[in-house]
Amino acid sequence: MLPSVAIVGATGAVGEIMRQVLSEHKFPLRAIKFLSSERSAGKTIEFQGKKHTVELLRPEAFAGVDIVLSSTPAGISREYSPIAAKAGAIVVDNSSAWRMDPDVPLVVPEVNADALKKIPKGIVANPNCSTIQMVVALKPLHDLARIKRVIVSTYQASSGKGAKGLFELDTQTTAHGKGQKIPPVTAHAAQLLGNVLPHDWKAGDEGYTEEEWKMVHETHKIMGDATIQVSPTTARVPVRIGHSEAINLEFERPITVEQAREALRRAPGIILVDDLAKGEVPMPLHCEGRDEVFVGRIRRDPTIANGLNLWVVADNLRKGAATNAVQIAEVLVQRGWLPKK
Q1: How is the chain split among helix, strand and coil, in percent rounded to 5?
Q2: Which residues contact 82 (CB under 8 A, 6 or more apart)?
Q3: Running DSSP on this structure, what letter comes out for residue 341?
Q4: Catalytic site residues?
Q5: Buried b vs exposed e over 291-313: b needs ≥16 C-beta within 10 Å?
Q6: What is the pLDDT of residues 100-122, one digit of tens each?
Q7: Nearest-angstrom CA–CA distance, 150 and 271
Q8: What is the value of pTM for the model shown?
Q9: pLDDT tens digits, residue range 168-197?
Q10: 249: left (phi over 0), alpha (psi -120 to 50) or beta
């Protein structure tokens, strides 16, 4: 039987794209419902040519649902994801609430789809957007020569802050273009236009931000290898959609640029764009609206043995969030791993 699906946070930036991806991928389903907070409940949205009324998020709304695609703040997920799971659904959660729970698989289908065989709490965690695109690029190279160390610097788009982040950058750009005063910031920690910001201002252990520690711990869990050393620096840049990452890799075994290119060319979910002389390099403008991870600027690091540099770009709202969640649901359906009812 085809699954019944619910999208929680259906009217948000990621929820909207979840609807798009489900439709584009022709995801098989028998029924769908859209759930949101009191602020959005009662609104009408369209899905595959039909109008649907957004329902209030409440425990009774999960009756008969097989798969929940959830994009809410972590606090909401902590409350409602267990309720949905208890009602018999598998919840694919896009928040940070469950990612490091040992009983919750943290999944990027191109990397560790087999982790979906066991879902003890009925919850699957969608990783952080910056981690997702990085591990998609790392996996084929790790299989080839085993990664010893990763140094990554991120250049993350304003849409990582959701619709409010996009709106704020657009408002700042419009004001600047008209010679007007930039409005007070509300979404980002400081003015983003013409600026580069630390991803957030809350420094944790050893001065690293929460986003940076996410990249460390999530990479270990997804790759299934806690020995990989990860040194991240995360930043927010005045780009609307599309996170970019400069990644330096040190391998345990020799690996050539051509070997890396061939491994990435064959890998699922990756598009190789790597001819600098022709201007063919991954750029956020080119990846917007795409589900793949774009990799280029592959070159030898002459300062260490077995070192390579990469440039990795992906649409943070799609592969970094909505698409990855839908792909998890697709694996569950295709492999028959949904609970029998």
Answers
A1: 35, 25, 40
A2: 121, 122, 123
A3: -
A4: 129, 243
A5: bbbbbbebeeeeeeebbbbbbbb
A6: 999 999 999 999 999 999 999 99
A7: 21
A8: 0.96
A9: 999 999 999 999 999 999 999 899 999 999
A10: beta
